[in-house]
Amino acid sequence: MKICAKAFGGATVLAAALLIPLADSTGGGQAAPASDASVAVGAQYDATHVYVAPEDLNAFVVSFIATFGGQASKLVVTNVLPVPSSTEFQYVSSPVGMLSAFAYQTPIPFPFGQERTGYLVTDMDQAIRAARSAGAEVIVEQFKDPIGLDAVIQWPGGLKMQLYWHFTPPKYAPLETIPDNRVYVSRDEADNFVNGFVRFSRGKVVADDKRADAGEIGRAGETYRSIRIESLFGKMQALVTDGHLPYPFGREITGYEVRDLAATLEKGRAAGVKVLSAPYTTRDRTTAIVEFPGGYIAEVHSQAVR
């Protein structure tokens, strides 16, 4: 399913070119980058996938924008999968991260609904080769939608994500802050996952704290392993745990960085957002877990005042 902005007008406008060469609108081939080149485009092209009931879609989108700012595309009803289905769709852009909101009118075909994020790539064939070479499996083979190509991959530990590519490349301004893709992984698969994703993304591990404050995951007074990765795709935090997680930890997919956490939570409450876990300050940030109308759970944080 396409997670980037559709060519549906409104707030989402597709530009004619990016800094990298892509295929023409006939789909007659993609310009293959050098084999050692990154397939990432930029963090502003990565979107969290959010699934809500049709009756909750508008309330969710309104509350998200009221909390973080931004705008939404026009609501459309379409099929974005390689099999018959129908969903209401809106793409939401905000200064702190992008998301694609789906409200299916039909049952969601397997395994869609399990992928957490979508990453725009410079070349789909190259991206799939790179993912496989790095240890990922392709669980939904490449398919064509009205404006590009899509595939779904799965990493060791079970993380599923979508890769997508557009015939006409989108062009968005950089984000004000780059969100964390929050990935909970087991001790058994943590190193396999991190090594594979770093290889695929051509990123780097910027922090590996084996005694991080577990109050961040609802277990104050304990420690856990926190690994932070940065690449052209954006930021990722791998939270390595024993799986003994109090609700709602582990349910959040994305962590949004804001300048003022208290002010953001106040705006969120006014827009119907519930604070599921009160702000907790670790060594470098103050963090909270929230739930938006429709059930989308997210982490929100600001840098700790030193």
What does this structure look like?
The protein is mostly beta strands and 306 residues long. It folds into 2 domains: 43-166, 2,3-Dihydroxybiphenyl 1,2-Dioxygenase, domain 1 (Roll), CATH 3.10.180; 180-303, 2,3-Dihydroxybiphenyl 1,2-Dioxygenase, domain 1 (Roll). The protein is 14% helix and 36% strand. It has 4 helices and 17 strands. It has helices spanning 57-68, 124-133, 190-201, 261-270; strands spanning 47-51, 71-72, 76-78, 87-93, 98-104, 117-120, 137-145, 148-154, 160-166, 180-186, 204-213, 223-231, 234-241, 254-257, 274-281, 285-291, 297-303. The strands form 2 sheets. Strands 1, 2, 3, 4, 5, 6, 7, 8 and 9 form a 9-stranded mixed beta sheet that branches. β12 (223-231) and β13 form a beta hairpin. The longest helix has 12 residues, at 57-68. The chain is globular. It starts with 46 loop residues before the first strand and ends with a strand. The relative contact order is 0.16. Residues 2-34 have low confidence and may be disordered.
